[in-house]
């Protein structure tokens, strides 16, 4: 198979949208979870809104509802509930952190930094606060200060997965790729069930075209996330990149077998087979 055709197959694997095939978070109410499992996300969101109207308004309630809405990919409304939680309880650190992380992802660094600083004033030794500050500093290219926050977090809680992720990301940003690989490999040993560490390590291996190592990590990831399609898609892409087309097809067929209710898995296989036929 010519390289250009192979590249087209890889592109298809990496661009076909994948939904979150993991089981719904236990934070969802039973009614919302039922709608979620039926694929009716709009009704699940309405179920959450109904809870807000039926129960006494408290910071704890609004935080719980915000968490549910994040699970249902309604980030805009989740932000409203996190803000309500903070307005009712100025000392609700978790609400501030969750809200600040969303703002960070949206590129609203000034607002996110304000929330992070407020959280730090209330809980200066909190690991999650330090990690958030580190991410914000990294986003503002203040790398040395970000390194300091990550290292302080790890001093307080060695092998914390999120602190390791931050530190590894900073190493990558400063060209210390092998150090990042070593750190992530060690972190996986200490946090074997934390998928994000393997996801980042696999992405590094793929970027470096170290396909055998990527295959190993992604296979492990499938083992700890058996209901997720994303690592299967990434594994198939890695196999294709290594010119192992038959093996990639086998991974996608197994995904359809293991995830019989996943429409994205079926779509991925159909798109792959169509591209293969035209190759």
From TrEMBL:
- Look up keyword Transmembrane helix and say if it applies: no
Q: Which SMART domains match?
A: TPR
Report the leader peptide range: none
Q: Where are the TPR repeats?
A: 59-92
Keyword Signal listed? no
Against InterPro entries, the record matches this protein to: CellSynth/LPSAsmb/PSIAsmb, TPR-like_helical_dom_sf, TPR_rpt
Gene3D superfamilies on file: Tetratricopeptide repeat domain
Q: Which Pfam families match?
A: TPR_19
Q: What's this protein's name?
A: Uncharacterized protein
Give the species.
Answer: Methylocucumis oryzae
């Amino acid at each position: 198979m010519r390289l250009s055709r192979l590249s087209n197959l890889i592109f298809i694997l990496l661009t076909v949208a994948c939904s979150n095939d993991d089981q719904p978070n236990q934070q969802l109410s039973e009614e919302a979870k039922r709608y979620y499992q039926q694929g009716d996300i709009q009704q699940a969101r309405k179920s959450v809104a109904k809870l807000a109207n039926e129960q006494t308004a408290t910071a704890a309630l609004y935080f719980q509802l915000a968490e549910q809405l994040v699970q249902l990919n309604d980030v805009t409304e989740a932000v409203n509930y996190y803000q309500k939680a903070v307005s009712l309880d100025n000392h609700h650190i978790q609400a501030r952190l969750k809200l600040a992380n969303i703002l960070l992802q949206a590129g609203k660094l000034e607002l996110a930094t304000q929330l992070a600083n407020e959280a730090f004033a209330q809980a200066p030794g909190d690991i999650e606060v330090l990690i958030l500050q580190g991410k914000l500093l990294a986003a503002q290219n203040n790398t040395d200060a970000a390194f300091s926050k990550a290292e302080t977090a790890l001093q307080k809680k060695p092998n914390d997965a999120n602190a390791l992720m931050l530190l590894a990301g900073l190493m990558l940003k400063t060209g210390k790729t092998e150090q990042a690989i070593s750190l992530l490999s060690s972190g996986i040993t200490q946090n074997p069930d934390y998928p994000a560490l393997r996801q980042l390590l696999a992405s590094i291996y793929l970027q470096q075209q170290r396909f055998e190592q990527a295959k190993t990590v992604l296979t492990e990831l499938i083992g700890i996330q058996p209901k997720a399609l994303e690592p299967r898609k990434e594994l198939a892409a890695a196999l294709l990149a290594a010119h192992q087309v038959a093996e990639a097809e086998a991974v996608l067929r197994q995904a359809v077998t293991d995830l019989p209710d996943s429409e994205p898995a079926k779509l991925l296989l159909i798109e792959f087979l169509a591209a293969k036929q035209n190759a």
